[in-house]
Amino acid sequence: MPESQFQNGHFYPISAPACALHADRPYSSFNPRNIQYIPVVKTSAFLDLEQISAGFEIERFEAGSREINFSVKVIRKSCAEGAREAQGLTVIIDVFRAFSCQPLFFHFGAERVILEASPEKAIQLRHENPEFIMIGEVNEVPIKGAEMGNSPSQIIQRGEAYFRNKTIVHRTTAGVTGAVAACETADEVILGSFVMAGAIAKYIKYKNPDKVTMVAMGDRAETKAPEDEACAEYLEHLLAGSTYDPIRAFKKIVFQPTAQKFIQGKKTYLPREDPIFCLQPNIFDFVLEARKVRNRLEVFKVVFDS
């Protein structure tokens, strides 16, 4: 599967009004989309959302010719506690902003990405390896000594010349800590966000696991965040055809504090452009998996082919 390429054209947000937030800025016309389809023809899926049982039978026709029967138990969890309880193939979701940043590292050619839950250890690792790039925050505030905070728009501004062949040390309060915790109990940990949602759904169908845990990491991993919960709902929609209304999702997300703290533009480390990027569905055609490598947790770009 080829790497995603940024293409010219219209920039599609989760719903149209997101573009209107900054329609006068060049960034609003930015469009990285190029999703490939794996060969899946017929799908039947059943969701068991913990105590609530819901069933769906659907037929879905996509490029290719291989027929598979797909059934999966989906467990929905939230925040730090949910990450610690992850089972099976687990998707750790952090829309604002950790796992909207992660695919950009690989798009811009980073050689290695390390996830570090402890800010002190991230600083030490950067100190011991001055050629590394440290990107991270503690409760949204950029870590002192880091090259930048956890901002996709700032990563895009730096571009390929800055990241190619580099090692990134990434620390965030919700997403990274959640992935580190989930790796202790889950069979496999996938990093989740809107920008990779289509590829994640195809990968889950391709792997056909018995159980999937979706953990919406929430605001500082403490309280539920509408953007992460909406992303989990969108993934369910892609997997099993469950109802998903992008206009309703837009309303739930952008008028709430987790988005408004960016949109209001009161803090330089919370750029207004960030939610515009983070709410774009299906930009990248690859999946990112967190794996333990000796004493480190690293991120790997997974290219899958049926």
Walk me through this protein's architecture.
Helices cover 32% and strands 21% of the residues. With 306 residues, the chain is α/β, with parallel strands linked by helices. It has 2 domains: 17-91 and 179-288, no CATH class; 99-175. Helix 8 crosses helix 9 (226-240). It starts with 16 loop residues before the first helix and ends with a strand. Residues 1-68 have low confidence and may be disordered.
Which helices and strands, and how do they pair?
Layout: H1 17-20, E1 44-49, E2 52-57, E3 73-78, H2 79-84, E4 89-93, H3 98-107, E5 112-115, H4 119-128, E6 133-138, E7 141-142, H5 152-158, H6 160-163, E8 167-171, H7 175-182, E9 188-192, H8 197-207, E10 211-216, H9 226-240, H10 246-254, H11 257-263, H12 273-278, E11 287-293, E12 296-302
Query: Could you tell me the strand content as a percent range?
Result: 15-25%
Number of helices: 12
Question: Average pLDDT value?
Answer: 83
Structural class: alpha/beta
Uncertain segments are 1-68
Record the strand order, biggest sheet.
Answer: 3-10-4-9-11-12-5-8-6-7
**Number of beta-strand segments:** 12
Query: Helix and strand succession?
Result: HEEEHEHEHEEHHEHEHEHHHHEE
How does the major sheet shape up? 10 strands, mixed
Distance between the termini: 11 Å
Quick overview:
The protein is α/β, with parallel strands linked by helices. Helices cover 32% and strands 21% of the residues.
Short descriptors:
306 residues; alpha/beta; 2 domains; 10-stranded mixed beta sheet; two-stranded antiparallel sheet; 12 helices; 12 strands; 32% helix; globular; disordered N terminus
